[in-house]
Amino acid sequence: MKGPLFYSKILLFGEYGIIKDSKGLSIPYNFFKGALKTDENPSEAAKKSNESLRNFAKYLENLQQEEAALVSFDLEALNNDIAGGMYFDSSIPQGYGIGSSGALVAAIYDKYALDKITVLENLTREKLVQLKTIFGKMESFFHGKSSGLDPLNSYLSLPILINSQDNIESTSIPSQNPEGKGAVFLLDSGITGETAPMVQIFMEKMKQDGFRTVLKEQFIKHTDACVEDFISGNVKSLFGNLKQLSRVVLNHFTPMIPEEFHTLWKEGIETNTYYLKLCGSGGGGYILGFTEDLEKAKAALKGHRLEVVYNF
User: At what angle do helices 125-143 and 149-156 cross, to 10 degrees?
Assistant: First the structure.
């Protein structure tokens, strides 16, 4: 048995801000993917994944009882497949901010949800919000409170524009320019990040008036501008707003940036060679970078591996 593939995602803009109704833009990232599988001779990783699925199935059973009107699953089929050794075979690194649990949630919903909303039907705003709500409840099993956005992106495999928490739509982004010098890239911090503690730090910070003001007047303002610039292809304005956003994150989201990257972060802003921002909740995993000249950025970030996600 091998299920359909579900891809990782990258939240280009909106990390933390979408909790407070900033705009956001999420795109599928097909380099990493996962699928439900069963093997004759499962590896240790497969056994571990199978055990995790067993616990997830119990969680879904409770969810179905509590939210009967929202979602129901073919639990019998799910439990039978898990008993038969089913696991999630994935190349998506965990704790890297690119949606490893999201792809798993999408795969389980796709295979076992009853009366599921499919990608083929007319995806109205109401249906997208409903899917996001279902996925948020499902993914909460993995790291506390979830927006449901990662599984939604993985399930639809389309760029998603978040206007506010209950206003989301699939969108198109400008075609890549394979010859372009500019790029969005991933920088590997070499550390696994944990979502829940980072979100906890953010929620604690939200209790401070000063931080709430910064979030609203600077972080959300520049995030919204970046989303609009990216979708409309306004590269010049985008990089102006990215610089401001990168600076706000360095000054006010310091705990979310691995310590050894503080200097690199600052150098990017000072030299305008590249701008870094959080990819997901931070604390490790990937860091997202934007540059107008990839070769210059590579030279400045020598010793670090850059994975290009999008070319300008």
Answer: 120
Q: Which residue do the tokens 């060679």 mark?
A: 273
Total number of residues shown for the chain? 312
16: confidence class by pLDDT, cuts 50, 70, 90: confident
**pLDDT tens digit string along 22-43?**
899 999 898 999 999 998 899 9
C-alpha torsion 139→6→35→53, nearest 10? 0
Global confidence as pTM: 0.86
For 116-146, give the secondary structure using H, E and C: CCCCCCCCCHHHHHHHHHHHHHHHHHHHCCC
CA 129 to chain centroid, in Å, comes to 17
C-alpha–C-alpha distance, residues 170 and 156, integer Å: 9
- Please give the structure tokens belonging to residue 150: 């990662």
CB atoms within 10 A of CB 100: 23
* C-alpha to C-alpha distances, 48 to 55, 89, 108, 246, nearest whole angstrom: 11, 11, 17, 38
Q: Is the pLDDT of residue 1 over 60?
A: no
- List, in sequence order, the alpha helices (H) in the chain: 44-66, 75-83, 100-112, 125-143, 149-156, 195-205, 209-214, 220-232, 235-252, 262-271, 294-300
Distance of CA 305 to the CA centre of its chain: 20
Q: Give the 3-state secondary structure of 173-228.
A: CCCCCCCCCCEEEEEECCCCCCHHHHHHHHHHHCCCHHHHHHHHHHHHHHHHHHHH
